[in-house]
Design goal:
Blueprint (H helix, E strand, L loop, with lengths): L14 E5 L2 E6 L10 H14 L7 E6 L10 H8 L4 H20 L4 E5 L2 E3 L1 H8 L2 E4 L4 E3 L14 H9 L1 H10 L3 E2 H7 L4 E2 L5 H13 L3 H13 L5 H15 L3 H11 L10
Parallel strand pairs: 2-3, 3-4, 4-6, 5-7, 6-9
Antiparallel strand pairs: 1-2, 7-8
Length: 272
């Protein structure tokens, strides 16, 4: 079975660091509000695919530098070349961008997005692809695809966004492309909670650390079931959860929790 160590991963097109079992990904083009390029899209997709085999990383924080999260695809480095491509090339690109979100949802580690400033276009979809979102009141969320003459259906937006905030609110954002501030996005249910800018990264990393110290096999199973059950009926979901929970009950973490409870102690989980 393939196993990899990713604590020491050397990123080429974005910032990457780790502390204990938590990895932090930082989009690091702050002068342009952290836009994505063909290269950063591809490397992020490949990194999240590798996370499926990582034995040392148990939670991930995704953020941006310089007071912004991500402004989407770089106008000059992506959008400009796209207008010159033929259909097969365009489809190759749109499939690659969607593959990033699929890889984020498929990796077992919970992903916490720390969102400040601009969070638009593909950046908003990275936020959608994360498991939880901490943000600042000054953050700005927008799905800008319609503003460049495209459909709001991009990178899974028409599936992910309605499940986060409801169909009607999702239609509002995808049809209009309007920007919403952090407080409105929190009321919609997009952000889990708002944090002061100077505390944002620390809060996100603390949340990720708490998840990494938990029953990480169980967390991975929860993430799998959240994804798998979207397109299943209630009976199928209950049966799938019965099987998933029975598997988790065979882990050593479950046994550790029982013995700790019996001893009136806090369990120390090891993810096995």
């Amino acid at each position: 079975m393939k196993r990899v160590q990713l604590a020491g991963y050397q990123a080429r097109h974005f910032g990457y660091s780790s502390s204990g079992k938590v990895a932090t990904i930082r989009l690091n083009r702050p002068d342009r509000k952290n836009p994505l390029t063909f290269d950063s899209y591809g490397e992020l997709r490949d990194l999240f695919r590798e996370m499926c085999y990582a034995t040392d990383i148990k939670a991930i924080v995704f953020t941006g530098e310089g007071g912004n999260f991500c402004s989407g695809g770089d106008v000059h480095e992506i959008i400009g070349p796209l207008v010159k491509m033929d259909m097969p090339e365009l489809l190759e690109f749109t499939r690659m961008t969607g593959d990033l979100v699929k890889a984020m949802r498929a990796c077992p580690q919970p992903i916490v997005a720390a969102i400040d400033g601009v969070c638009t276009g593909a950046g908003a979809m990275i936020a959608c692809g994360s498991d939880m979102r901490l943000a600042t009141a000054r953050s700005k969320l927008a799905f800008l695809f319609v503003r460049v003459g495209l459909a709001g259906a991009d990178m899974g937006a028409c599936t992910l966004l309605p499940r986060l905030i409801g169909l009607s609110r999702a239609a509002d954002l995808l049809y209009t492309g309007r920007a919403v501030g952090g407080e409105e996005a929190e009321r919609m249910g997009f952000h889990n909670r708002l944090v002061e800018p100077e505390q944002l990264l620390a809060e996100a990393q603390a949340l990720a650390q708490s998840l990494a110290e938990g029953p990480t096999f169980g967390h991975a199973m929860t993430k799998t079931m959240l994804w798998q059950e979207w397109n299943s009926g209630l009976g199928e979901c209950i049966e799938a959860e019965a099987q998933a929970q029975a598997i988790c009950m065979q882990t050593k973490d479950f046994e550790r929790a029982y013995h700790a409870f019996a001893a009136k102690q806090k369990p120390v989980f090891e993810g096995d």
